[in-house]
Amino acid sequence: THEHQLYLVPRRIDFTCNACGTQGDRSPYFCLQCNSMIHWECIDLPRVININRYDHRISYTHRLGHGKWKCGVCRDDVDGFFGAYSCSKCSNYVVHPLCATSGNVWDMVELEGIPEEEEIAPFEVIDDSTMKHFSHDHNLQINKDGRILHDDIVCAACVVQVCSEPFYSCEQCDFILHKKCANLPRKKRHVCHNLPFTLRTDSHLEAFSCMPCKQLFTGFRYEVDSRNILDVRCGSFSEPFVHKSHPHALYYSTDYYRFCSACACMPRSMISCDECDFRLCFKCAYLPQNLTRHRYDDIYMCSFKCRHNLGLLVN
């Protein structure tokens, strides 16, 4: 990651690493041409990588220059006069080098010189009101009239009732997709795993267990392997997460022995606030904004309790 030859200084010396911006106390590598010191651990920083917090590639740069940035992983300030990772597509996304290359964020693959995969769209546009989704054999028509379908008719992807939201329907069968579910990407990076998840639309009748919310579900799923599976609601998580019950942005965390502010459960992974003591488990974070009547009374009452705690609307 450095353009000049570096020389080892084999002695105890306090310094600030120019590659990562953190302190060191012994045996730095020194550059005579630009008067910089680098940790031996930072000599092999990768040039181009993917991280699980972000869908675009990020690249290492020696310095960002003047400006104010927050790290996309730890949310602390990033000093623009030391090394950092940044996105060429989104000018405001920056990550500390040590945050970007930590074992629970980076997939350990150097991407320099490897062509970027072209993103495959989840559907083909036929005309202004018709499209063909990769999960279904027939064309689907858009419906935007705000009607609420019978509670037995649910979206094939998220298995939730269609409540006045735009949706696609098939005229040849009973296949229904929320418009937002039809736009789900076929590949997705997620904080729960370093490798990318792939959208699977088969096995509609088989139940799977979602990693973050621990609920059994049917419908579409995001999958790395048989052990790492997400339902499409948890799979759509990205940071910062905005919830209507809370004024601050929320972020993924793995603080153990902390209670969900809605249902008081104690999960291993949560969505929490940096500014106050507010936390949500994934199950409560993705409760639908509106419900008319749920098919299952016990689930409905549990949902009502959590939604009451969150101040959401139940009709």
TrEMBL record:
Q: Which UniProt keywords apply?
A: Metal-binding, Repeat, Zinc, Zinc-finger
Tell me yes or no: is Zinc among this UniProt entry's keywords: yes
* GO MF: zinc ion binding
Instruction: Read off the Pfam families from this record.
Output: C1_2
Gene3D superfamilies for the chain: Zinc/RING finger domain, C3HC4 (zinc finger) (3.30.40.10)
Annotated ZZ-type domain ranges read: 260-284
Entry annotated with the keyword Signal: no
The species is Capsella rubella
Q: What is this protein called?
A: ZZ-type domain-containing protein
